[in-house]
Amino acid sequence: MSRGNWAQGERPTLIIGFSTRAIAESAVRGGYNVITLDYFGDRDQKKLVQNYSLMRDFHLGFSAEALLIASRGLDFGALAYISNLENHPDVVEDLTEGHTLLGNDPATLRRVRDWRTVRQVCRRESIPIPVTLLPGEEGQADRGKRWLTKPMRSGGGHGIAFWSGESLGEDQLLQEYVDGLSCSAAFVADGQRCVLLGLTEQLVGRRELGALRFTWCGNILPAPPRISNIQEMLQKLTRAFGLRGVNGVDFVLGQDEAGRPVPYLVEVNPRYTSSMELVEWAYGLNIFGVHVRSFEGELPSFSPEENIHHTQWIQNCSEGIAKSPPLAWIWRSRPSKIGFTDTGFYGKGIVYAREDVAMPETAEWREQGRRDIPFPGERIAARHPICTVLAQGETRDKCWRRLLTAAEAVWREVEKSAMPNKFTLITGRTTKQGAALHKGKDSDEYRQATGFVEMSSSDRERLAPLAPQSWGGRGGGQRVRVRTAFGEAELELHEGDLPEGMIFVPMGPAANALIGTETRGTGMPDSKGLEAEVELFGTSPAPLPPKVGGIEGGGGIEGGLT
Questions:
Q1: N or C: which end of the chain has fewer CB within 10 A?
Q2: Whether the domain at 122-128+183-415 and the domain at 422-536 fall into the same CATH topology
Q3: What is the pLDDT of residue 543?
Q4: Are 455 and 446 contacting, i.e. CB atoms less than 8 angstroms apart?
Q5: Sign of dihedral through CA atoms 121, 228, 310, 157?
Q6: How far apart, in Å, are the Cα atoms of 210 and each of 161, 219, 400?
Q7: CATH architecture, range 122-128+183-415
Q8: How far apart, in whole angstroms, are the C-alpha atoms of residue 164 and residue 293?
Q9: Rounded to 5 degrees, what angle do the CA atoms 284, 226, 298 make?
Q10: What is the C-alpha separation between 512 and 529, in angstroms, rounded?
Q11: What single-letter DSSP state applies at residue 454?
Q12: How high is the mean pLDDT in each 10-residue block of the chain (562 residues)?
């Protein structure tokens, strides 16, 4: 059976990685039968496809190994991976056992993500690349220049910092800092040939979006028009590594000593990249379909310059761009090839939380141009992503300003009730708890009598305005996590006759976990007046697959998507 038949056949294709929403939208738009497994499991994705989330459904931090184990209970015929599994070829190898792989094979990943090999290929093929040094080569660094330390297997700009002269760790590299504009190129390849799909400007470390340092926070399409030799670079990389399917490269658009524009290769991303969402939006090109068909040897007859609605560049572009003199040559005006429209530039921005926040109702967010939408009541820590915003504009500046307007609108909504989940906890005995105790602490009656938390109706609305059917009235129905300095417990949320800002948990195993063991010499731990936080779970999660054993919980977010 062909790969295309696998992708559209009765057995679904599994799309797997850190955040799969954008590529899942492309697959659904193209009529493909897919399921997804990622970290976030955001609200808009769960409405779109059958999704399994490490965070929501498995209560796990992100790791490639967790994705592998979680996938073992899923039925799928083909597999397409995204960030950051390109850094884990052994996991990709295990994932594809018995399945059709729609992506670069593990041997290709090992080569293209090995910086010693990439450096050799660039030297041999005369591909411009910043001076790149590996552990033990720090002594070759010109101290008169600026250098960046980077993870060997990077993602999303995480872990990048200016070098201060320290020795490199075994998983780090040193790369000369190139002054210029961060860009990315999206292309599709069949191992020998490739087709450029789009060029975008990368938004990196933009405080206007809440990002810091070198954190990736979006893209704007198209990139400046005066970029030469990109197709030649992509062709050389395709043949050198045998790249297949959709891929991306990150580069810095700088200048050589003669002042000529030069794209300096920064990284090869051998999988779907985040900028491809804008390519699909601007050009109407179904990226997932292009990806699948490339494995049949079919590449599209396509040119971004012939398909973009409008490319109008403003001299000395004024907003959201570094204004250093070496970049002035980028921003010279260029007339559209096929006429003016008011939708010439397409942007996406990742909005990062400026403070700890809890989500309000988000049911209408998609209609407001937002994607990767969290669930109501979800708690998001400062400097973590809230959602993606989209914008269009006839000039690059207007597109950028509309992204910022959209980001400000998100912040206004989530910060006006920042962290509405802090409460004062009291515990105590109840009649039902006492009656159930006689049936034993292992009985269903006792678990039901002690496994809930009460709060006022107004506090419940402030915490997360869910639909009435999700609330379940005074009897509950919504699951929450209650957390104190001593521990946490997962409980059913009930409405009770309590003052605002107060919650009640009956004495029992959950209450014991929350109040701790400190008695202050009284013989009894404090059971009233404790500070507590309440977090609602996401509503209506997908049912778990039948076999999910063997996963160890915990851990944080590792990696990122660009």
A1: N
A2: no
A3: 43
A4: no
A5: positive
A6: 18, 15, 14
A7: 2-Layer Sandwich (3.30)
A8: 47
A9: 40
A10: 14
A11: E
A12: 53 96 97 97 95 91 94 95 96 96 98 96 97 95 94 82 92 94 96 96 94 94 80 97 98 88 94 97 95 96 67 36 35 31 80 90 94 92 94 94 95 75 86 84 87 87 50 57 88 88 90 72 60 68 42 42 60
For 503, the token pair is 């919650």
Task: Judge whether 60 and 54 are in contact, CB under 8 Å.
Answer: yes
**Class of the domain covering 422-536:** mainly beta
> Strand runs (DSSP E) across 105-256, as ranges?
132-133, 147-151, 161-162, 172-176, 181-190, 194-204, 216-221, 244-255
Please report, for the chain, the start and end positions of each structural domain, with discontinuous segments joined by +. 3-102, 122-128+183-415, 131-177, 422-536
pTM for the whole structure: 0.74
Tell the residue number behind the tokens 């919980």, with chain if given: 553
Q: Which residue do the tokens 């200048």 mark?
A: 255
Assess contact for 43 and 522: CB atoms under 8 A: no
CA atoms of 57 and 375, how far apart (whole Å): 13
SS3 string of 201-243? EEEECCHHHCCCCCCEEEEEECCCCCCCCHHHHHHHHHHHHCC
| Structure tokens that stand for 36 in this block | 């997804």
Cα 322 from Cα 181, distance rounded (Å): 8
Pick the CATH number of 3-102 from 3.40.50.20, 3.30.300.180, 3.30.470.20, 3.90.79.10: 3.40.50.20
Is 491 in contact with 479 (CB distance < 8 Å)? yes
